[in-house]
Amino acid sequence: MTSQDRSPFMTHADPAAFPDSSYLLGDLLAERFTCRAYRPEPVADAVIDRMLELAQMSASWCNTQPWNVIITQGQATERFRAALFAEASSDKHEAQPDIDYPQSFPGIHAERRREVGWQLYDSVGVQRGDRAASAKQALENFRLFGAPHVALIYCERELGPYGAIDCGVYLGTLMLAAQSLGLGMTPQAALAGHSALIRRHFAVPDNLMFVVGAAFGHADHDHAANGFRSRRAPVEENIRKLRD
Ligand SMILES: Cc1cc2nc3c(=O)[nH]c(=O)nc-3n(C[C@H](O)[C@H](O)[C@H](O)COP(=O)(O)O)c2cc1C
To answer: Percent of the chain beyond pLDDT 70?
Structure first.
């Protein structure tokens, strides 16, 4: 396993070497993590609005800005959580994402997936081989990890994969915007498996495809599920630099 802690990416021997903005962004990137336990109190409307204004600055192909986003709060979150959890807990449910899930996670991708999975299970005390306990932790996705809000990101089907890419760019900006406001956020592909239920529940028109969800709120920093940080491969593992 070649992955490493995140700090080497953020620190530099000579902090004067780059503009301050690089360190500001580095701090946000280093502090952000996928939050998997929330405090129940809602986020103030003004803070949600600021997060959405910041995310609205995302780039998109031809400036199409194709993200269609549903945001819930209060009873709207509670009703959705109850419906989602009921479906996810039923043995009969089969995942029906609007965008196909990966066929497999080949090679190093499976290793990285396993590593972060075990980081989570170790932090919440799930033992190797305890399938009931790991399934219970996975079900937390459908309790929205206790978050008071969720963002559900849709895109016109006709825009195809590039519309979904734009929504992925939007999700990335949204996560950094949330971090800049001191909020926790959980990107959730798990919700895509319930796209039919979500479509019915929120009366989403058929021309839109579900891309990804993101629960958000105030992180519960004392919760064990928030007590680890995922690692990153050294830059050289992902980048091929060509020089003459
Ligand atoms: C598109 C996308 C979908 C994700 N879906 C889920 C999910 O359904 N449930 C979950 O717990 N984490 C989900 N994650 C979080 C990843 O597991 C996490 O980003 C990764 O392990 C790196 O950890 P970090 O976000 O804490 O840096 C998702 C992340 C992304 C970008």
So the answer is: 95
